[in-house]
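ugh ok fine here u go
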Amino acid sequence: MEMKDRIRQRMSECGLKAVDIVNKTGLSKGTISQWLNGHTQPRGDNLLILSNALTASPEWLQFGVVSQGSSEEQLHFKTYEIPVLDVQLSAGFGSTQDAEAVIETMPVPERLLEEFGVHPQNANIVSVKGDSMETTLRDGEKIIVDTAHCQLISNSIYAFAFDGELKVKRFIKNFDQNWTIRSDNNLDPAYQDQTVAPHNIKQLQIIGRVAGILARKL
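structure:
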C-alpha cells in the first residue's frame, strides 16, 4: 500500500472528502489532489497538518508502521486550538486579542508550535492576502503569528493592523532610526518601500512577529 492509499483509507474511515481536508488543513485543492493521486507526498509541516486532520500518526501515513487512532498517545502529538484572525480586523485591535477579530480556530500540532518557538497562548493564525510578499509568503497561505513578540526587530516580518485591515510586511531599521516597511515582491513596481519615522511606527498596531508558515502552498 502506498502513502496515497493510506491517506484515502483514513479519509474513508473518517467519512472525509477532499474538500473536508482542504477546510481542515488550509491547504489548496491542488495540493490535496496531488497527494491523493500520488504525484507528490506531504512532507514536514504539511505532513503534521494532514496527520492531525486525519487523526493518524505521521509514521503510519508515511510507512504504515504505526496503527492509526484518535488518541493523543497513539498520535504521538497533541494539538492546540489556535485563533484565526479575520483579514478585516475590528477597529480596536491592539496588543490584547480582540474577540471580534477571531473568526474560527484551527488545531495546530504542539510540536509545530515548538518548532516555531511559539507558546500556544501567544499564537494566532492569519491568512496572507495578495502577492506583495511573494515568494516568501504566498497568497492564501496561513501563517503563525507570535503575539509575544511585538517589539520590532530589523529584517523580520510582522502582522499589523492599519486602518482596520490586517497587513503582513517586512520591517527594516535604517541608520537614521527610520523604519522601512517592505514588500518582498520586488518584481512588481506597485509595491514600493514605505519609510516611517520612529514616532509614527509606534502608532502602528503590531499584532506580532510572523513565526512560520502553517501550510506551504505548492
